[in-house]
Amino acid sequence: MQDQYTYDYIIAGAGCAGLSLAVHLVQSGQFRDKKILLADRDSKQQNDRTWCFWEKEPGLFEELVYCQWEKAWFHGDGFSKLMDLAPYKYKLIRGIDFYNWCHALLRKQPNVRFVNGEISGMETNDTGASLLVNGVQYQSQYIFSSIRDGKPVLDKKDYYLLQHFKGRIIETAEPKFTPGEATLMDFRVGQEEGTTFVYVMPFSEKRALVEYTFFTENLLEPAAYDKLLDEYINTRLGISNYQTTEEEFGVIPMTNHRFPVQRGNIIYTGTAGGQTKASSGYTFRFIQKHAAAITQSLIRTGTPFNQPKNHRRKYRFYDSVLLHVLTHKLLPGDKIFTRLFKKNEPQRVLGFLDNETSLREEIGIISTLPTWPFLKAALRQ
To answer: What is the pTM of this model?
Structure first.
C-alpha cells in the first residue's frame, strides 16, 4: 500500500525552474504557512551547466553572478564591433553555485522539504494533484512541473530546432584574454551544419569559457564538437598551450510549439512550460519572470493562473517567423544576426530578444532585415 503525504505546493523537477520558483515563493515572505515539497531525481551536486543572460538591474540571484561584462564583441562576415551594453550587463551564473545557494536557503525553511527519487506518475483532479516518487504518493493543491516528456507532437506550422553546444573552461600559461570584454557571438566559423557561432566569456587574463553553439535539426557526432573547439581555440584565439579544467554539453529545444501552460492543477514551468525563447534558446531570465508572475498570482488571488500575458502572442509570432526562415533556409542565420547587430543598437536587440520592446521598436528592428524572406515566412504563419 502506498504511503501518502499532503502538501500545499509540490515542485516537480528541482533544477533551475523548480528552485527558482521555490526561492521566489520563500523570498516573498507570504507562504510561511504553506507546506512546499521539491521533488527531483537527484540532489544537484554537479556543476552541470552555466546560465548566461543580460539584465539592467540586479536580480534575485545577483550575489551568485560569477562574472559579468559591460562590453561584448560581435563578429560576423565583414563586420566586427565591440559593443557597449549599458545599461545592460551580460552575466554568467555557474550551475553548482546556483544549486548550492538555493539548497542552503530552502533547507533553512521549516515549511520546505526535499525528496529525491524516480518520479513515475503525476495526476490532477478536481481538488488538487498528486505525484508518485519511488512508489510514495504526495498530494497537493498544485504541482509546478518542469519535467519534459521528450519531443512534443508537432502541428503543421510547428518548427523544432535544437540549440546544442559544447563548452570548455580553459586556463592558459600566458595572458590571452581581456577580462572586461566578452564575445557574445562569433559567426566567423563554418556554417555548413546551419546557424553556428562561438561565444567566449573571459574570467581573467588566463581563464575563459569557450563554447561552440549550433541551431540545427540534428546533433553532431561527439568527436566533432571537440575537433571544432580545438580548431577555434588554436586558430581563431591563437592559443596552443592551455589546460581544460571543466567541460559542459547541453541541448535546448528551439520551437514555436505551444507547450501546455497547465493540465488541471498541474502548472508547467521552465522549458516544459514554454519558457525557452524559441528564436534564441535563452531561458534563465524567462524562468525568473515566470516564477515572479506565479508568485504574484498566488499572493493576489490564491491561484497561480492569473498571470499577465506579456504580449506573448506577438513574440511567439516573431519567433515562428525566424524559425520558419531558418528551417527552410530562406536566409542563413549568421546573416540575420549580423544584420540585427550591424543595423541596430545592441540595447534594442537585447530588449527585443528579452520580449521587452515596444511595437514601434519592433517595427524598426524588423525593417533592418531583408524584406522578402521574412515577409514570405510571415505570410506562411
So the answer is: 0.92
